[in-house]
Amino acid sequence: MSGPLTGLKIVELAGLGPTAFAAMMLADHGAEVIRVERPGSRPADRDPLLRSRKIMTADLKSAAGLETVRALVCEADGFIEGFRPGTTERLGLGPDDMLRDNPKLVYGRLTGWGQDGPIAQSAGHDINYIALTGALHAIGTARQPVPPLALLGDFAGGSTMLAFGMVSAMLHAGRTGQGQVVDCAMMDGANVLMTIFHGLMAAGYWEDRREANIVDGAAHWYGVYETLDNRFISIASMEPQFYALLLDRLGLADDPEFVRTEDWQAQRNDKAHWPKLRRRLADIFRTRTRAEWCDLLENTDVCFAPVLSMEEAPHHPHAQAREAFITVNGVVQPAPAPRYSVTKVAPPRPPVAWDEQEARTKIE
């Protein structure tokens, strides 16, 4: 492996998607990640979340399995687990045990609710975690919230925050020799992601309701529109110069409904006009196919992009030019990000099986 994290070693206790994604990020950027699974787990050599890992099985209910894992962690820079609070303590793999064995260890814990608090022991999923932060309340139609993909809580608020927290703590450990526990809660991470909207609301620029704001589907110049061929395009002509270009490209630069006064910028931001102007734009965008709108608006400062399906996305010319997708073991998947000018990352590879005996031999 190569990348800025080359030389770091992480042990990951197999868990659900969010912990696997955090470990994938670390592996993508050069860390050696060893994933420990239960005996009898299904082979997953085509799972993108498990790429670039060594995968071993160990029976954590046996003394030999626990000894192997603890020996691995003694040599590691980081450890990842995503069980309910107290589970690893009962296994004998809790932070007190591991940090006693390895004082420089960064012990990463990823849960939905965090390690403490009234509902820390309750089960939950992405939608539940973002529900308590105000994020779910802000997403959807005026009538009701709409569940987004499980990205905001599980992966943005959980996995990505855990990876960032572990790298931060490992930098600290490298300087001071002092390890620590990283308590990463998906609720906390999703809450942090809402910071800008709390700021906008405090400044009087955000209403605490759906479809009433500039980026939640209310503004006519920021949203998704259906095309003649029943596909969709996205428009985000937020800045005045981009909005002016949009009107020009649509033949609306002199339309009195859009520009009725000299102070057209104030009219553009007048929420009372938004519903009518959105309907007008919707009628216009339904007159051409998605491909025709791409020909007219793509590669301009209108702030435009076609809404692509997951199957279409890898074939877009920009994605191909940047090699944004790769194929690993026959599976098309997103390439590692971000990119580095010096410590370039190696292409991801399929996970490699590494049995308990091999692990014990390696340690010895």
What does this structure look like?
- With 364 residues, this protein is of the alpha/beta class.
- It folds into two domains: 221 residues, Rossmann fold (3-Layer(aba) Sandwich); 80 residues, formyl-coa transferase, domain 3, CATH 3.30.1540.10.
- The protein is 37% helix and 15% strand.
- Helix 2 packs across helix 15.
- The chain is elongated.
- It starts with 8 loop residues before the first strand and ends with a helix.
- The model has no long low-confidence stretch (mean pLDDT 94).
- Helix-strand category: alpha/beta
Radius of gyration: 25 Å
Mean pLDDT: 94
CATH superfamily of the largest domain: Crotonobetainyl-coa:carnitine coa-transferase, domain 1
Q: List the strand order in the largest sheet.
A: 6-5-4-1-2-3-12
CATH architecture of the largest domain: 3-Layer(aba) Sandwich
CATH topology value of the largest domain: Rossmann fold
What is the number of helical segments per DSSP (H or I, 4+ residues)?
15
Low-confidence stretches: none
Overall domain count = 2
Residue share in helix: 25-40%
Number of strands: 12
Strand content: 5-15%
CATH top level label of the largest domain: Alpha Beta
Run of helices and strands: EHEEHEHHEHHHEHHEEHHHHEHEEEH
Short description:
The chain is of the alpha/beta class. The protein is built from 15 helices and twelve strands.
Descriptive key words:
364 residues; alpha/beta; Rossmann fold; formyl-coa transferase, domain 3; three-stranded antiparallel beta sheet; 15 helices; elongated
